[in-house]
Write a structure and sequence with these properties.
By secondary structure, the protein is mostly helical. It has a single domain, classed as Ribonuclease III domain (Ribonuclease iii, N-terminal Endonuclease Domain, Chain A, Orthogonal Bundle), CATH 1.10.1520. Helix content is 66%, strand content 0%. The longest helix has 23 residues. The termini are far apart.
């Protein structure tokens, strides 16, 4: 069955019903924020992939894996970090320097640290209701991914 995605009129954005206090949210451990942010980041990208029409068997997952990998997330971090307000830079640096497990998946230890900081930041932005800023991160991730596809 073919689905006309232009008629879905759905959103690729989701939100939290009641935002959390920013100062209290910033006190959460980096891993807790990253736990939330990982889901937020990936779900946003999944919704975007479905809306863009990538729906052949296996392509959804395959097209997303390279975008949510530690090396790709580290590139997004590097692209956006310099634009942050000073107060947020301090928080994100703190999250980047959080304890890294011995086994950290794909990429280097530094890439994993930056990816975790990006996820923690997404978690923080989500629970504090800063959806537009999450959208900017997702746009950057998609743009960088597109640029990498063009280079291949």
């Amino acid at each position: 069955m073919d689905v006309n995605k232009t008629k879905l009129n759905g959103s690729n954005v989701f939100s939290i019903n009641q935002v959390w206090n920013e100062k209290e949210a910033a006190k959460l451990p980096a891993r807790t924020l990253a736990y939330i942010g990982d889901a937020v980041y990936e779900l946003n990208l999944r919704l975007n992939q479905v809306a863009s029409g990538i729906d052949e068997t296996g392509r959804l997952h395959d097209s997303l894996v390279k975008i949510v990998s530690s090396p790709s997330q580290a590139k997004v971090y590097e692209a956006i970090f310099p634009e942050l307000p000073e107060e947020e830079m301090k928080m994100v640096k703190c999250w980047r320097n959080a304890k890294i497990p011995i086994r950290y998946g794909s990429g280097t230890r530094g890439e994993y640290a930056r990816a975790t900081a990006l996820e923690a930041w997404c978690g923080y932005l989500f629970i504090t209701g800063q959806t537009e800023r999450i959208n900017k991160i997702i746009e950057t991730a998609l743009e960088l991914s597109s640029n990498n596809d063009d280079a291949e």
